[in-house]
Structures are given as C-alpha cells and as structure tokens.
Specification:
alpha/beta; 2,3-Dihydroxybiphenyl 1,2-Dioxygenase, domain 1; Signal recognition particle alu RNA binding heterodimer, srp9/1
C-alpha cells in the first residue's frame, strides 16, 4: 500500500467568512463547492498541486448522524497545517490583515517562520527554508 496524498479537511463554522483568506490572500482556487440550504457546506481549494478542504461543523454532524453514528465534533481537535513556501516576505504582506500570531521567528532547523490563525480558527505555520 502506498499513500498517494494526504489532504487536510479544516472544520469551520462558516465557509463564506474563510474564503477571502484562502482565495484572495493566499491565492487558492475554489474547484469544488457543495451548497446546503443556501450556504456552502464543503469546498475544495487548490493551489497548484496543493489541496485544502473546508467543511462546516454542521455538515459533518449531519453526515455522521445520517449514517447512524454518534456526534463527533464535540471531541474533535483543532487542525494545525504547516506550509513550506518559497517567499515568506511576499506571504507576510498577503496575510497582514489577518490574525498573525508570530510574524517572524528563526528555527534551529533552518527555517524562518510565520504563525497565524486563519478566520476558521485553525493554526497555520508558514516556513521558508534557507
């Protein structure tokens, strides 16, 4: 068995409020969207070969309940996604309007990093390796 790829699914309260960050600030493209009652319940975002999925808590619970399983979101954790980028300064300018937690830090493993919380509440680390 070989893993072909791993794609994080970030759980959010509302997709519409997170899209400006992912699409406008970071340049991801929305390639799939699933509406539910006039709102988005799930999207797939791509940036080249990179992929992120966003899904609402409500739609996850709805899908789980439809299968007869107990609710899971009360015990689900927060995702942390770590990105390797080629130009941290350019990224820093694109996300300055959002909640940056650590604007710049040097690591012992040769990376300059920026850490932030995206509008859905997830922690994101961005690193440029020297």
């Amino acid at each position: 068995m070989t893993f072909k790829k791993a794609v994080p699914i970030l759980v959010v309260d509302e997709i519409e409020t997170t899209l400006p960050f992912w699409v406008d600030a970071l340049g991801f493209e929305k390639t799939v969207e699933v509406p539910d009652d006039g709102r988005l319940s799930f999207v797939i975002l791509n940036h080249g070969e990179r992929e992120i999925m966003l899904q609402t808590r409500a739609s996850i619970e709805k899908e789980i309940e439809e299968q007869g399983a107990p609710p899971v979101m009360a015990t689900a954790g927060t995702a942390i996604v770590y990105f390797d980028v080629d130009d941290l300064d350019a990224l820093r300018k694109r996300v300055e309007a959002f909640e940056v937690l650590v604007a710049k830090r040097e690591t012992p493993y040769g990376a300059e990093e920026l850490w932030m919380r995206e509008p859905g509440g997830h922690l994101l680390g961005f690193a440029q390796f020297k």
